[in-house]
Specification:
By secondary structure, the protein is an alpha+beta fold. It has helices at about 5-10, 20-30, 50-60, 85-95, 120-125, 130-140, 160-175, 205-210, 225-230, 235-250, 255-270, 290-295, 295-305, 315-320, 340-345, and strands at about 40, 50, 70-75, 95, 100-110, 115-120, 145-150, 150-155, 175, 185-190, 195-200, 220. Strand 10 (about 185-190) and strand 11 (about 195-200) form a beta hairpin.
Length: about 350
Amino acid sequence: MAKSQQKARDFTVQYSEPVGILAAQSVGEPGTQMILRSFHFAGIESAIATSGLPRIVELVDAKKKPTTPLSTVYLEGAASKDIEQAEKIAKKINEVRMDSLIRRSVENFSKGTIKILLSKQELESEGLTPGQVSDKLAKLLKLDTSVEKNVITVKVHTKNLKDIRLTMVKISKAVINGIEGAGKAVVQTNPKTGEIYIVSAGSNIEGIITVSGIDKSRLYTNDVFAINRLFGIEAARNALARELQATLDEQKISVDFRHLLLIADAMTSTGTIKGVGRHGISGEKNSVFARAAYEETVKHLINAASFGETDHMRGVTENILVGKQIPIGTGSVKLAIKKEDMAKIKPK
């Protein structure tokens, strides 16, 4: 047999082969050997990137927000080689919240005012002036503000304690510069190619993609739901498989990529991202016994009895439960013989 024919045969799935069980086994067995650890992402103090088994769990459970969202932003043209241009783009992305600029604040309930002392060091670091911060607060929150040196005075026009406290909370959460949800953005350099790119500790790629100077075709985040919202379900499916493989590769665990693609396909086949647990794929199976075998057994059986559900016993799990032959492999073949042919068979 030629090598090309042998290779094609090796990649062929036989009819009625239980590919789901093979994929589950191929990922589940190495998963028991994974290390429960996280690693620190260089340059971003807040980004302790989740890895290992916790990352696998949040992916297959379709967690809406990753524990440590990260976005990779590649640059267009000269910016991908020029550190100064890259830093200018990074400043447009970098999310600066008011609480990071405040050194001290004083709420005067008798006068209905809030005095905010800004950190000179933080202002210089972010390239902002007290006047810019004051104008941004006035515009965002519709506040009456004034500025003197590094002190911003906010007139709340009420002496109600609750209203003043709520105003201060809103001020501290206000985004003064950059893109909300993009997080801290830092410039990185690929040691192999020398290409300059930006990594941000957030996943608001809907906002990041509006920034000029970035390569929109290579924008990526580890937040699968953010990719789905911006690029669609096919891109989310590819990202899901890619994140699973990256997590396994990091642990030096080798799993055939087709198993990971099958899991991603199953999770995204309906056009939305669903977890594999009882709130997703396993909990929405047509078979009553298959649902009951996974979790909440009594609940599923009582509901099925109450609503008169019928289980047609077409899957693997339900047939194992009742002791019938499972419809995979040789069990998927049924033989029939005509009566006239039966009569021709002579008993020995």
